């Protein structure tokens, strides 16, 4: 299996090179040359395996330059050894008659990012070795809150790597900020920026492609990579859990092998839902992929009209990890849908960079609409959904998953679709205590510190908070730096001791 670039389809590299580099030198994203196909027998076999076994089988279809032994070692290191708080790694919990929640947040940082970022350090260090890169790898991360902590945790003290994280200093929850600023490890750095996630992501992408910085890095034996979902090594582990959820539905007799299911995904950078799209096109029986957004509803409009337009107000919402107006992974989807036409992708993304918008043609729009349903909801509807779901189903949603549940409910009302559905649950409610508590108590909450609210939420709901969040109480932040978005380059050089 080789990988090409969305902006240059003549490129063909092995997965190790794609993962080690993170992003293609032409500014495009790496995509597999073809989508491997599986049969219903393959799914039957997967159903008999545990999560680690399922991961190895799915990953090996895409990462053919890695041996099964290597992948098994990586998957064990990532998902075994009690790192996840549930024996099934990703438990599937029944919500309603036909609705299930896939809890992707049972890992060390309580967000679904752990699913990829626990295994990425293995994939990346393995890739660097295979690709013969002798330099120390500097992983630059732009985060809307959850990727930062998950990447810090995954790469903490991993030999041959440094990790530097930029987060919007006013755009993450207090718990998210404390998780990052208290990070331990000798190879880590964390800095806030006076801007939003899009600013952080744009700054990181600029550093990646800056020739002067590249030269300084070469002189000092450093090379960049990315732990954002622009890296294929982030995306491929996420395909596994869609197969796993299907297998668990089979195991519980909720469906027969071959029956279609819907996946509902709270979406920001479009990585998670793109993984579901890959699973579908490999042969997993999927009806609709339902793309749920918050008030930053650029994707909802895009799916309806075919015009992507980021020229709009940016909202800081109760689901901050989805406060994104430039969804990077959409570039991969469009490349898959326009028949691998890199020239057209270059045109669209040049237009996005220059004018903030682009419009796809009718063929791509009708493909989009046949595969996806899309919707959004605001903070008031998100909180109402948290309250209703807790009262009706006894299940406590976080603010992101609540967006997905609401959009799904609206979708069912509109379409009458009775297909069995799986809602991707992307974070523990305890990462967003203030809003979740406010929601379940119907607004009767006094402003308090996050740990008092955590206790109150536990007492009110009877749902236990994750130990690793409770343990943050009283910890002193190690990193307090905040920079202007224009100064990110200098911060990177400073953290590496290069100026
Ligand atoms: C990152 C994140 C999302 C969005 O996922 P994408 O892959 O960026 O679309 C949704 N919810 C939570 C809690 C997240 O951390």
What does this protein look like?
It contains 22 helices and 16 strands. The chain is of the alpha/beta class and 499 residues long. It has a single domain, classed as Rossmann fold. The strands form four sheets. Strands 4-5-15-10-11-14 form a six-stranded mixed β-sheet, with helices on both faces. Strands 9-6-7-8-16 form a five-stranded parallel β-sheet, with helices on both faces. Strands 2-1-3 form a three-stranded antiparallel β-sheet. It starts with a strand and ends with a helix. The mean pLDDT is 96. Pyridoxal-5'-phosphate binds next to helix 12.
Per-chain topology:
Layout: E1 2-5, E2 8-14, H1 15-21, E3 30-32, H2 40-47, H3 51-62, H4 68-79, E4 92-94, E5 99-103, H5 114-117, H6 120-130, E6 136-142, H7 146-155, E7 161-168, H8 174-181, E8 188-194, H9 197-209, H10 211-219, E9 222-226, H11 232-251, E10 261-266, H12 271-282, E11 286-293, H13 298-305, E12 307-309, H14 330-337, H15 342-355, E13 357-359, H16 362-371, E14 372-376, H17 379-393, H18 399-415, E15 421-425, H19 433-440, H20 450-461, H21 467-470, E16 482-484, H22 488-495
Parallel strand pairs: 5-15, 6-7, 6-9, 7-8, 8-16, 10-11, 10-15, 11-14
Antiparallel strand pairs: 1-2, 1-3, 4-5, 12-13
Helix pairs in contact: 1-6, 2-11, 3-4, 3-11, 11-12, 17-18, 17-19, 19-20
The structure holds pyridoxal-5'-phosphate.
């Amino acid at each position: 299996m080789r990988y090409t670039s969305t902006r240059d389809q003549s490129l063909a590299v092995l997965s190790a090179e794609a993962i080690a580099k993170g992003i293609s030198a032409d500014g495009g994203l790496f995509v597999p040359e073809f989508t491997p196909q599986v049969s219903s027998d393959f799914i039957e076999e997967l159903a008999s395996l545990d999560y680690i076994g399922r991961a190895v089988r799915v990953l090996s279809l895409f990462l053919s330059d890695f041996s099964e032994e290597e992948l098994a070692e990586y998957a064990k290191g990532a998902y075994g050894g009690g790192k996840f708080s549930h024996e099934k790694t990703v438990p599937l919990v029944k919500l309603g008659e036909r609705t299930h929640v896939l809890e992707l947040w049972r890992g060390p940082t309580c967000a679904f990012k752990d699913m990829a970022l626990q295994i990425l350090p293995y994939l990346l260090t393995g890739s660097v070795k295979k690709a013969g890169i002798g330099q120390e790898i500097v992983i630059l991360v732009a985060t809307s809150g959850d990727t930062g902590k998950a990447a810090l945790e995954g790469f903490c003290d991993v030999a041959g790597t440094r990790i530097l994280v930029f987060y919007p200093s006013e755009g993450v929850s207090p718990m998210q900020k404390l998780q990052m600023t208290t990070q331990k490890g000798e190879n880590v750095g964390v800095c806030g920026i006076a801007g939003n996630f899009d600013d952080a992501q744009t700054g990181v992408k600029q550093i990646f492609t800056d020739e002067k910085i590249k030269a300084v890095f070469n002189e000092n034996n450093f090379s960049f990579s990315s732990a954002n979902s622009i890296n294929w090594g982030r995306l491929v582990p996420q395909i596994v859990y869609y197969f796993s959820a299907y297998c668990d539905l089979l195991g519980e007799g909720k469906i027969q092998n071959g029956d279609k299911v819907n996946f509902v995904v709270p979406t920001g950078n479009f990585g998670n839902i793109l993984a579901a799209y890959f699973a579908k096109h490999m042969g997993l029986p999927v009806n609709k992929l339902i793309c749920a957004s918050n008030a930053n509803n650029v994707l909802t409009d895009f799916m309806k009209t075919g015009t992507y337009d980021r020229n709009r107000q940016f909202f800081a919402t109760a689901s901050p990890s989805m406060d994104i107006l430039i969804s990077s992974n959409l570039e991969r989807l469009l490349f898959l849908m326009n028949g691998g036409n890199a020239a057209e992708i270059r045109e669209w993304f040049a237009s996005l960079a220059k004018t903030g918008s682009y419009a796809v043609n009718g063929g791509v729009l009708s493909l989009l609409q046949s595969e996806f349903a899309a919707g959004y909801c605001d903070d008031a509807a998100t909180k109402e959904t948290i309250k209703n779901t807790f009262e009706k189903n006894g299940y406590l949603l976080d603010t992101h998953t609540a967006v997905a549940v609401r959009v799904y409910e609206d979708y069912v009302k509109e379409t009458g679709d009775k297909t069995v559905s799986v809602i991707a649950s992307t974070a523990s409610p305890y990462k967003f205590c203030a809003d979740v508590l406010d929601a379940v108590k119907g607004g009767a909450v006094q402003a308090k510190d996050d740990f008092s609210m955590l206790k109150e939420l536990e007492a009110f709901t009877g749902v236990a908070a994750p130990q690793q969040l409770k343990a943050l109480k009283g910890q002193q932040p190690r990193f307090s730096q905040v920079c202007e978005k224009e100064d990110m380059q200098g911060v990177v050089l400073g953290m590496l001791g290069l100026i």
